[in-house]
Amino acid sequence: NLVQLSEIIRDAPAGFSVLSGEDALNYPILCCGGQGVISVTANLKPRLLHDMVEACQQDNYAKAREIHLHLLELNRVLFIETNPIPVKSALAEMGMISPEIRLPLCQLETANLEKLQTVMHNYKLI
Questions:
Q1: How far apart are the two ends of the chain, measured CA to CA in Å?
Q2: What's the rounded Cα separation, in Å, for the pair 92 and 98?
Q3: Residue 20 DSSP one-character state
Q4: Mean pLDDT of the chain
Q5: Is the CB of residue 28 less than 8 Å from the CB of residue 75?
Q6: Which tens digit of pLDDT belongs to each residue from 15-28?
Q7: pTM, entire model
Q8: Helices of type H across 1-126
Q9: How many CB atoms lie within 10 A of CB 75?
């Protein structure tokens, strides 16, 4: 809720930081005055998330917007099923972790894994 977020930022005491915890809203939250992000997408594209936050901190909203728009499809596919299943599957596809998923989570559905792999290929992650 960007209205509620804006009110929180407006009324926050000095030293109070607002962070985005929703990758699809990172850019708008940073534009409203958020100071940073807690990001799932950063597990796969840490430099781009860093660059987007830094661009906003430097008032370069055009560059931040470009990064945000570039990451839209990756952000979407990383939430195709319950978090953290897709990001764990993506990291396993990249060879960064084992493909083990512990209960109560389960493996990504085959059709969704194929969608994830396609997007990852488009982003040159695999």
A1: 34
A2: 6
A3: E
A4: 96
A5: no
A6: 999 999 999 999 99
A7: 0.90
A8: 2-11, 26-31, 46-57, 61-77, 85-93, 110-122
A9: 20
Cβ atoms of 26 and 20 closer than 8 Å: yes
Question: From the CB of residue 6, how many other CB atoms can be counted at a distance below 10 Å?
Answer: 15
Over residues 24-37, the mean pLDDT reads: 96
- From CA 87, how far away is CA 33, in angstroms rounded? 27
| Tens-digit pLDDT profile for residues 70-110 | 999 999 999 999 999 999 999 999 999 998 889 999 999 99
Tell me if 57 sits within 8 A of 44, measured CB to CB. Answer: no
Task: Show contacts of 66-75: CB within 8 Å, 24+ apart.
Answer: 67/27, 68/26, 68/27, 71/23, 71/41, 71/45, 72/24, 73/119, 73/122, 73/123, 74/41, 74/44, 74/45, 74/119, 74/120, 74/123, 75/23, 75/24, 75/41
Q: Could you give the angle at the alpha carbon of 38 between the alpha carbons of 34 and 42, nearest 5°?
A: 120
Q: Are strands 19-20 and 36-37 parallel, antiparallel or unpaired?
A: parallel
Could you say which DSSP state residue 13 is in?
P
For residue 36, give the DSSP letter.
E
